[in-house]
UniProtKB/TrEMBL annotation:
Homodimer. It comes from Paenibacillus tritici. Signal peptide: none annotated. This is Fumarate hydratase class I. It is an enzyme of class 4 (lyase).
Length: 567
């Protein structure tokens, strides 16, 4: 099978950079349901633009290319040992070429192997079958959405929903709760795979395998098909929205599988996948290793525009996101807009009605312009003053220029009891683990979207105060400890659009330097020169948190699903 390594390399690149057709149609459907001028609507526009950029630049849709997981069916007689060697070499090549982020980290030492190989990685499941061809499927599922997977053991008492029994209605409650508990942290709007039964291990495996079904297929089990339809009709009533900003679209797909269980156990396992639902497959010739056919429809040419009733919507700056997305590629001569789609073309930010429970925006600073609906676009350069930060309110869109510093799990733990290598007074910390490539000119950013910020909650408040940091950028929001520190010290949390890795890479004009390379590329402290980096204030220095409000609001909505539906 002399071409098998090349075929696997092509599968990896296609999966990482070109969102498949069925997923794009689901994103387009979601966009059609969301008001374009809201934060969620504009986040989806940024996502659409990012999808086109990734395809055009053949670069990772999201910087987190996850735990490469292969499910391979082979006819009898195929040498799986040789296949595994070819897969490893393709993984190494794809990592070296910046199509995968080095993601294999020693769980005890924290050391990143640098080439995505290591104990248990990549994941390769081989199964034999009666067919002649070799069927290879790959999913790249990132850590942030993997962290939102959840497993229920029935019967159980579920928050807001009461008792969940060992029946279809109990399963219904588990699935709704699974969508609720993810909030926006797993980069909603998401897709879920559900596994009913099995033991703890096989239940989760079944859930993940459901993600290999096509988005538009019909469940062969009529009862489960009805449950899938019910979930798709009702999960969006939770109002969590894209990125957890609040909105009409929280879930884009639900696929449910079932298997036998032990008498003592009744597990309902949910695999939560973000909007960057990257899975692809190939049928391979068993003699030559060539690709005979692709198993999921390519995304090329499939619009993520999403037809919407004509609405007075201000087009994003630069070439309209819709044109980029519709073409599926970013035209060669396209100038990537400095002010991103989060900000409308007229310089007005999302015309979101004022966030419930938040005061009207204070007087705009010199660099601000006021959009309708009370939110503003505020241009700031680092280092940022306390006055400028305290003038910001939840809902404002901040467009940043100047130097910012990446920092996530390893750095935050380190800074708790060490000093910082750079002055962080007035600085911006970006929760991001980028894909980076180095050549003779130095380091280049290949993908740089935000990571889930809640993981830094134990450290963030202390670090903000210890070093004088003014803004933290990430996604999914942070908790009460950080919110308190923002008020005491004068800081804000800015929510960037999760998964928009090409979008934000475009705003990074230069890599000034890097510290802590010993933490590995994703965890190092990258000092980046940015221009036009846009993100939304979702936690401000006045005690306001959009995340707390959406969580409270969606909890109340969840409770509406308490009464039995499937009797
Ligand atoms: O690891 C990352 O860069 C992002 C991660 O997938 C996350 O969603 O937090
Ligand atoms: S950052 Fe968001 S889009 Fe990227 S892998 Fe994590 S959850 Fe998915």
């Amino acid at each position: 099978m002399q071409h098998f390594e090349e075929s696997i390399y092509n599968l990896i690149v296609e999966t990482s950079t070109n969102l498949p057709g069925d997923v794009r149609r689901a994103v387009a459907k979601g966009r059609a349901l969301e008001d374009r001028a809201t934060r969620s609507g504009l986040a989806l526009t940024t996502i659409a633009q990012n999808i086109g950029m990734a395809e055009h630049q053949v670069s990772p849709i999201c910087q987190d290319t996850g735990m490469p997981t292969f499910i391979i069916h082979t006819p009898v007689g195929v040498n799986q040992i040789e296949m595994k060697k070819d897969i490893h070499s393709a993984i190494i090549r794809a990592t070296k070429n910046g199509k995968l982020r080095p993601n294999s980290v020693d769980s005890l030492t924290g050391e990143n192997s640098g080439d995505n190989l290591g104990a248990g990685t990549p994941v390769i499941h081989f199964e034999q079958w009666e067919e002649e061809g070799i069927d290879v499927r790959l999913i790249l599922k990132g850590g942030g959405c993997e962290n939102k997977n959840i497993q229920y053991s029935l019967p159980a008492e579920l928050e807001g929903l009461g008792k969940a029994g060992r029946d279809l209605d109990g399963i219904r409650k588990c699935i709704l709760h699974a969508v609720y508990q993810a909030q926006g942290q797993g980069c909603s709007a998401g897709f879920i795979g559900v596994g009913i039964g099995g033991d703890r291990t096989t239940g989760y495996e079944l859930a993940k395998k459901q993600l290999f079904r096509k988005v538009e297929d019909v469940n062969t089990n009529a009862d489960l098909g009805k449950l899938e339809d019910y979930i798709m009709e009702n999960a969006n009533k939770l109002g969590i929205g894209t990125m957890g900003f609040g909105g009409e679209v929280t879930l884009l797909g639900c696929k449910i599988g079932v298997m036998n269980r032990l008498p003592a156990s009744f597990f309902v396992s949910v695999a939560y996948n973000c909007w960057a639902f990257r899975r692809q497959g190939i049928l391979v010739h068993p003699a030559t290793g060539d690709i005979k056919e692709w198993l999921y429809e390519s995304g090329t040419g499939i619009s993520v525009e999403g037809e919407q009733a004509p609405q007075p919507v201000a087009e994003p700056v630069g070439i309209a996101a819709a044109d980029r997305a519709a073409s599926g590629i970013v035209p060669e001569d396209a100038t990537i807009p400095a002010a991103p789609a989060i900000v409308s073309g007229t310089g007005e930010a999302a015309s979101e009605p004022a966030v419930p429970g938040h005061g009207a925006a204070s007087e705009p600073t010199a660099a601000a312009s006021t959009g309708s609906g009370g939110s503003r676009e505020v241009r700031l350069s680092t280092p940022i003053s306390e006055e400028d930060i305290r003038s910001l309110r939840v809902g404002d869109v901040v467009i940043l220029s100047g130097e910012m510093h990446t920092g996530r799990d390893a750095l935050h733990k380190y800074l708790m009891d060490h000093d910082t290598p750079v002055d962080l007074n007035g600085a911006v910390i970006y929760h991001c683990g980028p894909v980076m490539l180095k050549d003779d000119e130095g380091w280049h950013v290949k993908a740089a979207g935000p990571t889930t910020s809640i993981r830094e909650e134990p450290y963030q408040g202390d670090i903000i105060k210890k070093f004088g940091i003014r803004a933290v950028i990430g996604k999914g929001g942070m908790g009460p400890k950080t919110l308190k520190a923002l008020g005491e010290h004068g800081g804000v949390y800015l929510n960037a659009i999760g998964g928009a890795a090409q979008y934000y890479a475009e705003c990074i004009k230069k890599v000034n330097a890097v510290d802590f390379m010993e933490f590995g590329i994703p965890e190092a402290m990258w000092h980046l020169q940015v221009e036009g980096f846009a993100a939304i204030v979702t936690m401000d220095a006045h005690g306001n948190s959009l995340h707390a409000d959406v969580e409270k609001d969606s909890a109340a909505k969840l409770a509406q699903f308490r009464e039995p539906v499937f009797k």
